[in-house]
Design goal:
It is a multi-pass membrane protein. The chain is mainly alpha-helical. It has one domain. It contains six helices and no strands. The protein is elongated, with a radius of gyration of 19 Å.
Length: 125
């Protein structure tokens, strides 16, 4: 019985890719609103910062992408797995537990980024 997966199984079945994509899409969704605020807090200034507001029409598409990628990652993490498949690969509970912790942490970060236009107003007031 083989406990360790081969490299191809780990790369194609890993929920890490949709989580990374979800966080990147959340950054894209908050680029119009949180981007200028973060840049100003870091001391970066210039008239080009106002051009980040041009991303505002794409915000709904980024939000749909964030939700879709995190639903896909959640399905990959929480789907029931057989203890051992026909090819001898056995799922390891510690890996799934780590993926679940990372999933909820990245979901929280993505939710903060997507909702940033609403709570940044209170923070800046």
């Amino acid at each position: 019985m083989n406990i360790e997966p081969d490299d191809n199984t780990l790369k194609t079945d890993s929920p890490a890719w949709p989580m990374v994509g979800g966080v990147l899409a959340a950054i894209g969704a908050s680029l119009c609103c949180a981007g200028p605020f973060v840049l100003l807090m870091l001391g970066v200034s210039g008239s080009w910062i106002s051009t980040l507001a041009a991303f505002d029409p794409f915000r709904p598409y980024f939000i749909v992408l964030v939700v879709g990628l995190f639903l896909w990652a959640g399905w990959k993490i929480y789907r029931p797995l057989d203890p051992c498949s026909a090819d001898g690969f056995c799922s390891v509970a510690d890996n799934r537990r780590r993926y679940r912790m990372v999933f909820w942490l990245t979901s929280l970060i993505a939710a903060m980024l997507v909702s940033s236009p609403y709570w940044l107003v209170w923070l800046m007031a």
